[in-house]
Write a structure and sequence with these properties.
Layout (H helix, E strand, L loop, with lengths): L5 H32 L1 H8 L3 H8 L1 H17 L4 H19 L5 H29 L5 H26 L6 H17 L7 H14 L4 H35 L5 H27 L4 H22 L3 H15 L3 H12 L4 H27 L3 H31 L1
Membrane topology: Multi-pass membrane protein
Keywords: Membrane, Transmembrane, Transmembrane helix, Transport
Family: Belongs to the major facilitator superfamily.
Length: about 400
């Protein structure tokens, strides 16, 4: 029998590690929207109004706020694998705890734990994927495909449970089962060691010198984009189902299907974006054009969504543009500014994303007291701001190139 070459074994280990990391983000796709998709059921189980459930959801943002800067910095010093395992453990406790019919304070604590899980996974995963791909950020784009796959599956699962009158908690137990299955993979794969990481960081630092003034301006714009890009997606996924039911007059299945179409668009966007980036299409051009497309799609859904095909098409377009990996592309651009501090950059970028996770449910909870249309329509303002930030980044880069 022929013995595989060292290169073949290394490639096999690399792809097994990558797949293991990606599978965690299928679970994360559940975690992002599982509370929002079960808002009505949780409201009934806890005997509280929807605004209280929205408040609980904001705890996810608190967890991210508490953890991101810490996990990001520590990821540059400690084991990447440790943070991946920490993230999985926190998500497991969250999923099992939510089906135990907790009090509101306990539920809020579990939501905070889900935020910590998200930050720990990001700290261990984004950095690892960049490092096993020779410093390239293309591999991080595929994370969004697995997130979108989870976001596609969960609404269908929730709608099926609701249509059959089954217990909503099964959606949380499915999430827990997926975590336990993937834990077997994580425990047996090899992550890059610290010596390898130091060597790659030194090489990257020498290969990507950056002007200090340009880096400062780009940093501020990208930190702002960390907020708007996350807010844009969270706003949509939290409220599109209720908006479709109460403002567009859709039935429950059709309303949930809009979120599934968003996820299909997201997966399609990942594929297209991955191909374009591998063909050296400008990351800045993609950041500008896709943010503008997402904003146009939102405007069309708000003003012409009463027509079913328009609602379906715009949800698909929005998913393609806003959730097809464009946030990860922004992070890749950010990482290039600080090639030796990937963990710190990831933590800072997603710290601002976590501000969105915390503030969006609070803002939309207040707006929902006016109307569901007002709650959902605020996302259009976020889209406009994000587009302006990326246009500013492109102009800054263009001015630097001219010099």
């Amino acid at each position: 029998m022929e013995i595989p070459s060292t290169t073949s074994r290394v490639n096999l280990q690399k792809w097994r590690l990558a797949l293991t990391l990606y599978l965690n983000y299928l679970v994360h796709g559940f975690g992002i929207i599982i509370l929002a998709q079960n808002m009505t059921a949780l409201s009934g189980a806890w005997h509280v109004p929807l605004a209280t459930v929205s408040f609980v959801i904001s705890g996810i943002g608190i967890g991210r706020l508490v953890a991101y800067l810490i996990t990001g910095s520590l990821a540059d010093l400690l084991s990447r694998k440790l943070f991946v395992l920490l993230g999985m453990g926190c998500y497991l406790i969250f999923a099992l705890g939510m089906v135990a019919n907790p009090s509101i304070p306990v539920a809020y604590g579990l939501a905070i734990l889900a935020g910590i899980a998200n930050s720990a996974l990001d700290a261990g995963t984004y950095t690892t994927l960049v490092e096993i791909n020779g410093g390239k950020g293309d591999g991080t784009i595929l994370i969004k495909a697995f997130v979108s796959l989870g976001e596609f599956i969960l609404p269908l699962l929730v709608a099926t449970l609701a249509n059959h009158g089954w217990w909503f908690g099964w959606s949380f137990l499915v999430m827990a089962a997926l975590i336990l299955l993937n834990l077997l993979n994580v425990l047996t794969v090899r992550f890059p060691n610290r010596a390898e990481l130091k060597q790659m960081a030194a090489h990257a630092q020498a290969a990507h010198p950056t002007n200090t003034n340009h880096r400062l301006g780009a940093t501020l714009l990208l930190l702002g984009y960390g907020y708007t890009s996350m807010a844009l997606m969270i706003w949509f996924t939290q409220w599109v189902t209720l908006f479709a039911q109460q403002s567009l007059g859709m039935g429950e299945t059709a309303a949930h299907f809009l979120l599934s179409l968003y996820s299909i668009g997201s997966i399609s966007g990942v594929v297209v974006l991955f191909i374009l980036l591998n063909r050296a299409v400008s990351e800045l051009k993609l950041l500008v054009s896709l943010n503008l497309l997402a904003t146009v799609a939102l405007a069309a859904l708000l003003w012409a969504g009463q027509t079913p095909w328009v609602a379906n098409l715009t949800s698909l377009m929005f998913g393609f543009a806003a959730a097809g990996g464009i946030m990860q592309t922004g992070l890749t651009v950010f990482m290039k500014l600080y090639p030796a501090r990937h963990g710190m950059v990831t933590g800072a970028f997603y710290f601002f994303g976590s501000l969105a996770s915390f503030t969006v449910p609070l803002i939309t909870g207040v707006l929902s007291k006016t109307s569901i249309t007002a709650a959902f329509g605020g996302d259009l303002v976020v889209g406009l701001i994000g587009s302006c930030l990326m246009i500013g980044l492109a102009l800054t880069h263009h001015q630097r190139e001219e010099k």
